[in-house]
Amino acid sequence: MVVDSNNKMLVLNRVKTDWPGLTFPGGHLEDGETLLESVVREVQEETGLTISTPHYRGRILWVDDKKKICDVAYLFLATAFKGTITSSTEGEAFFIEFNKYKDYPLSTDFEKVVELIVKSTERV
At the topology level of CATH, where does 8-111 sit? Predict the structure, then answer.
């Protein structure tokens, strides 16, 4: 989650069929890459923004019993960034007020991810 100085969060209205709907920028680690390097790279690739000092806020698991796999997403929050928003082939990137995201189709567990990050921030 990237939050701007107006307390709006950066979202991606993802168009790809494997994970459609409103979501946060994200992706997978590349070979030889640290988790933090991956976070910065994925946000930049999908939104054009370069974040700094992302803070770990938790994780979420998705288990697929049929495929016998478990996906793990590590959740980060960044409030410092530079650049201009540029949408990508992943979908349109934009800032949105926290209370407006439910007006859009949501990706799997997006509401749960928002709640996890917000709750973790309240404990700090």
Answer: Nucleoside Triphosphate Pyrophosphohydrolase (3.90.79)
